[in-house]
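Students often ask why we bother encoding 3D structure as a string. The short answer is that it lets us treat folding as translation between two languages. Here is a chain of 225 residues written in the first language.
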Amino acid sequence: MEKVAAIIVASGEGRRFGQAKQFAPLAGRPVVDWAIEAFARHPQIDEVVIVLPDESRAEEIKSRWSKVKAVVRGGKERQDSVSRGLEAVSPEITLVLVHDGVRPLVKAELISRVIEASREEGAAIPVLPMDDTVKMVEGDIVTSTINREQLFRAQTPQGFRKKLLEEAFAQARKDGYYGSDEASLVERIGGRIKIVPGDRTNIKITRPEDLKVAEVWLNESRRGL
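And here it is in the second language, the structure alphabet:
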């Protein structure tokens, strides 16, 4: 039977944000706690590994969510942090989802879609279409317009067969390569990645104003709007 783990990556320092954004308050709780809860409550998730700047909250987090197997310290880069989380996953796990800890509004339906597609194809990511026209620019001059029909914005969670993800990370380490997400590492070794519909409310908290937007959507979801 398939065993699924979620790695929640929340080890950033939040330089652009002015503080560690994963710990910024959202409706009275740290941003990352909302993400942890979404995966800990999901019936198809067997265990959760959290990657934080340090392990000071480890006991508190484990006591609140029984599915949390480990809280590990992050690395220098995001890719290093995910690698440490992957090392902490139990041997019997066959499928791994990697999620940004600063995407607090991830829904159970999206998690389920990624799990199902990952089971079928070996790797899957949620995406959203590009709504705006995309321009190529050099300096402050437009050089061309890109056909947006083939362009999509990637979200998390991104799901993979554990062996495939481990192989992708091993090759990246060997090559000294750092990618922008886990899917880019799998692409490099020829992995086939299925896309599933993303969710517009699954925003990444990047700027202070994002917290206000997230709180509005959170309140709407609580009211069933």
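Translate back mentally: The chain has one domain: 4-125+154-223. Keep this in mind for the problem set.
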